[in-house]
Design a protein that fits this description.
It contains 15 helices and no strands.
Length: 390
């Protein structure tokens, strides 16, 4: 797979691009909460505005990629990212929430673009491996990005941190623009590419969006509840250990999933992962939390890969950008809902109850997704569906 023309370069560029994209939101949170001394509530408002903009902008960017191509979209979004992150530290707080909304709206759609490019560059038989590897690269970027943001902010300050992140983001965007990987398979007829009958939005597609939403709801809800667990145990310093072990488990899970001969149904992975999240509620020490977090983390990369692969097989080439953008929006919305749900339950009851609730909601969404996907046609691709998909 990596020997195919352009694939290795695309994966490397997307890793480089995702690191500043992962670091920048946390950097903005630290700037508002600590540098401006306005607290985490107001920084949360800025983060929510950016998330809302990203959720709206991802499918719009995907539609633009379908219609105008990758390079045109990258020119606009890279310029917008550079402008936003280059000015964010200099504007007064009242301007930041609306500016963050626009910044999110015009954000580089790195998640959906990488999946769309791989779908165009790889044959159907290699999509599972390709998406598993991309999920692993995603995990690496999001394991590196936030710590870099904290390190830069606490050592050299915002005056260096913001420009550094902006420059790396700009370099990644320019590199992808110059590389300009394909976003549609070479076999696609241009007329067919621009004409779709709208029938791609099926029960199966809806089911996949439900599962995708459930994935980040359970994962980010778990993160919030585990943080509260460790705080109550007076072991907050061990959060870095939990994160490191979880990232390693996710990478291992993605590696194993990429070696499988057939895909696993996304809904089944979500049910297993969410049940494992609920199981962490049994932990009463940081060591047990670390151990019990491994099964759920091991499902993370496989779940994201399986959901992306299933959607890629389901939708026509001409709307793949829009569909991947909607899936990216589902990830954003699920993450916001999961963190908020866990926060409410933790404040009202306890961290353990938070884990039980987000895990239970994740299981319910997985089963709901199964009702849609198992009763729907398998999609456009007639390759084997794998465990539990039909």
């Amino acid at each position: 797979m990596l020997g195919r023309p352009g694939v290795s370069a695309v994966l490397v560029v997307f890793v480089v691009l995702r690191i500043p994209l992962a670091a920048a939101p946390l950097l903005l949170t630290l700037h508002v909460a600590l540098e401006l001394d306005l607290g985490f509530a107001k920084s949360g408002l800025v983060a929510a505005a950016m998330a809302a903009g990203t959720a709206i902008g991802a499918p719009l960017a995907g539609t633009a990629v379908d219609r105008f191509g990758l390079r045109a979209v990258m020119v606009v979004t890279t310029a917008a990212e550079a402008l936003f992150w280059g000015t964010a530290q200099h504007v007064p707080y009242p301007v930041l929430p609306p500016l963050a909304l626009v910044g999110g709206l015009l954000a580089i759609p790195a998640f959906s673009l990488s999946r769309q490019c791989l779908a165009a560059m790889l044959p159907a038989s290699e999509l599972q491996t390709g998406y598993a590897l991309d999920s692993m690269m995603f995990e690496i970027a999001y394991a590196i990005g936030p710590p870099i943001a904290v390190l830069l902010f606490t050592t050299v300050g915002r005056e260096v941190a913001f420009p550094a992140v902006t420059v790396i983001m700009l370099l990644g965007g320019v590199a992808l623009t110059v590389l300009n990987p394909p976003v549609r398979p070479p076999r696609t007829d241009p007329e067919v590419w621009t004409k779709t009958d709208g029938r791609w939005w099926t029960r199966h597609t809806v089911g996949l969006m439900i599962v995708t939403t459930g994935a980040t709801l359970a994962l980010l809800g778990m993160d919030a509840a585990i943080t509260a667990q460790l705080r109550d145990l007076d072991q907050t310093r061990m959060l870095s250990v939990v994160i490191a072990v979880s990232c390693a488990a996710s990478l291992a899970g993605g590696f194993v999933y990429g070696l499988l001969s057939k895909p696993i149904a996304p809904w089944l992975l979500l049910v297993v992962m969410s049940a494992a999240v609920a199981l962490i509620a049994c932990a009463h020490s940081w060591i047990v939390i670390v151990v019990l977090a491994i099964p759920s983390a091991a499902c993370c990369a496989p779940l994201l890969a399986a959901a992306a692969e299933a959607l890629s097989r389901q939708v026509p080439d001409g709307v793949r950008g829009r569909a991947m953008g909607l899936q990216s929006s589902s990830l954003t919305l699920g993450g916001g809902a999961g963190a908020a749900l866990a926060g409410v339950v933790v404040d009202r009851w306890s961290p353990n109850m938070g884990l039980l609730v987000v895990g239970g909601v994740g299981v319910a969404l997985g089963l709901l997704g199964a009702l849609f996907t198992r009763s729907a046609p398998a999609g456009l691709d007639d390759s084997p569906s794998g465990l539990g998909l039909t």
